[in-house]
Amino acid sequence: MQIRNLFLLCTVCFLSAVITTSETAAYDGKPPASEDLAAALQRGSDMPESPFQLQVNCTDQKGIRSFDLFAGGATIWNGRSQIMLPTAARSALLKTLIEQEFARFETRYGGRERPAKTAVAARISCRVWVRIEEFQKSSVQQAGGEQSTQLTKLAADLLDQVEQFAQNGVTPADLQGALDKLSDGQLAPQVLRLRFVDLPGKDNNKSGSILHLHGGKVSRQAYSPGHVIEEQVWVPLEQSQYQTLVTALQTAQPASLPGNLWSEDQLELEIRVLAHKKVVLARPFARLDPAGQGPAQQRFDTLLAELRRLSQPK
Description:
Layout: H1 2-26, H2 34-46, E1 52-60, E2 63-69, E3 74-77, E4 81-84, H3 87-99, E5 108-110, E6 124-132, E7 135-142, H4 149-163, H5 175-183, E8 192-199, E9 208-214, E10 217-223, E11 234-236, H6 239-252, E12 260-262, E13 266-273, E14 276-283, H7 295-311
Parallel strand pairs: 5-7, 12-14
Antiparallel strand pairs: 1-2, 1-6, 2-3, 3-4, 6-7, 8-9, 8-13, 9-10, 10-11, 13-14
Helix pairs in contact: 2-3, 3-4, 5-6, 6-7
């Protein structure tokens, strides 16, 4: 029994790694032709309300800095605060990308050839990624080898432009406060991230599921142990579903939940809002009495019902 439980827990951890990898891969598709991206950036600059996304993270003389700009202006600064960038500031970012000819940048600078089966990820010191219209491109600076002063300058200029707005950002003190700010609209839906892995118990022949929420979009994947996970398909999360989910999360008070709870199934829940994160594992722990968890178990079970409703395909 202990061996089986360990195997199932490892399966959950493996799924977590797969999901994280998939999310990153979604940001690094095949780059477009430079002239196509340059034209799209120019069109976006000519129409200030055009939506686009931009991610920048870099380590330089000012330290480790990053921002994640979503379509519409909501921006995560250094993973801790949310800024609402005005239209003029977003337009200035596009102009910087155009003026410094980001469309012509290589997708990778530096780095060394690595064995095909190596498990060690390349260290990245600088990265700029943009998505506009149907185009997306990422340019990264890896440790070792050629170093691109063009990329580090572009990243620094973009970061400097956003940093001036950071002092007016919304920075919740804890997870419960962050959920409250999501509920009253001080934080945008894009800053809520959630991952819910739901695997059936040993006596249940039903398929499991993986629910993932990121950037205001949701993906739902059916999963059966031993079978390939379905390809992620991201769709916008409906406003009514979002509000119901946030209310359920507020009521559950996840920050006060124990890290381990009881369930007949194998469950893993990760909730993240900016710098605040909570992970709960629930399974049939042999030494855990569900009745002994009292209100915490009840709050989790209520939230679980809502997560399972959200996991169902439309």
